[in-house]
Amino acid sequence: MRLQVILNNWLRSMRYAVLTVGIILTGLLAFTARAADPPSFTLILRDQGFEPAELQVPPDVKVELVVRNLSSRPAEFESTDLHREKVVSAGREVKLFIGPLRPGAYEFFDDFNPKTRGRIIAR
After folding, report:
1. Which of 14, 109, 113, 120 has CA 20 to 30 A from 41's CA?
2. Could you report the per-residue pLDDT of 68-120, keeping only the tens digit for each?
3. Which residues have C-beta within 8 Å of that of residue 83, sequence separation ≥ 6?
4. How buried is residue 115: exposed, middle or buried, by Cβ count under 10 Å (0-12/13-18/19+)?
5. 72 lies in the same domain as 29
6. Can you tell me the distance from the alpha carbon of 51 to that of 71, in angstroms, rounded to the nearest whole number?
7. In angstroms, rounded to a whole number, what is the distance separating the alpha carbons of residues 73 and 21?
8. Model-level pTM?
9. Can you say how many angstroms the Cα of residue 73 is from the centroid of all Cα atoms in its chain?
10. CATH number of the domain within which 81 lies
11. pLDDT, tens digit, for every residue of 29-72?
């Protein structure tokens, strides 16, 4: 009987220990996921073109690209080099991920106005 009480107490203590470790690990995983968020870069599209026309990003790293369309008409961010194509309504923004990119230059343009061009430079 006494052994049964000791065993029950030990099992209860182990449950609390496992629960505590689980909570700690969950917190660590959430912190690690947040710390691993990719760097973010912004391209602004105005009626005159992209700003900046050349955007530098780190090589060999996945990055988030935010494209804000501040022009009065819809635009389409397109890049055959990056294999990306995204329509951006006037006054709106889109987020997309690119990379990891090898060092080099990658061209992009507004498919609705192909003269509006820019480059992403990974270095």
Report:
1. 113
2. 999 999 999 999 999 999 999 999 999 999 999 999 999 999 999 989 999 99
3. none
4. exposed
5. no
6. 12
7. 54
8. 0.69
9. 26
10. 2.60.40.420
11. 666 555 578 999 999 999 889 999 999 999 999 999 999 999 99
